[in-house]
Amino acid sequence: MSKKRNPMTSREGAFTERKNVSPTKFRASYQRSDLPVAVDSNVSGVKLRWKVQIESLDYNHYLPIFFDGLRETSEPFATIADQGVHDLLNHGEEKVAQVVPQLIIPIKSALETRNRKIMCRTLRAVQHLVLASSLAGEALVPYYRQILPVMNVFKNRNSNTGDAIDYSQQKGENLGDLIEDTLQILEQHGGEDAFINIKYMVPTYESVIFN
Fold it and tell me: Where in this protein does the record put region Disordered (predicted)?
């Protein structure tokens, strides 16, 4: 006789952090000294220092590597990757949009870890990505099927339930709220097809434009 699965257990499993996350290309590149950055440490923590003008960098090469580092949980790798992503986005202007297809796998992989600290970091990076370039929002629309499913799972997850009391609350962030904010930014900057595609992947999402 086959053993019946407990529906509640199955649902809770969707929120479980994934273990044995594969090593990041970012860590390997950093350890080989292939990245044009140095790290200054002081009482305030780790600060990233670029060895070249950021604007001169090949974004097609470096931006995906730093986005891949968003999955890091060990220091100083996590902080370096996070700071590097935002530094690159701050200086990338329209170069950012052309790299979007190469960022989908790193974004999806980071969200799929279901590690709330990583998810919060990645959602903030996605928001910055969209706001960094007038073309990035529309460039992301064809990839909603890859990056929105995990957001759909966690969108209405109460942050004070069980083990969800963690990074998001410590930072004054609720993961569900951060997901909602991200979806709104995607809709607002994704063009006329954004809402219908978000709604298809996240049925509980309500438009901030049409309502």
Answer: 1-20
For residue 36, give the DSSP letter. S
Domain boundaries, the chain: 24-201
Q: 8-11 long-range contacts, Cβ below 8 Å, gap at least 24?
A: none
At the topology level, CATH places domain 24-201 in 1.25.40
Residue 57, helix vs strand vs coil: coil
For residue 21, CA distances in Å to 16, 17, 31 come to: 13, 10, 18
What's 47's DSSP letter? E
pLDDT of 108-156, one tens digit each? Answer: 999 999 999 999 999 999 999 999 999 999 999 999 999 999 999 999 8
- Number of neighbouring beta carbons within 10 Å of residue 56: 9
CA distances to 139, 141, 194, 205 from 85, in Å: 18, 21, 24, 28
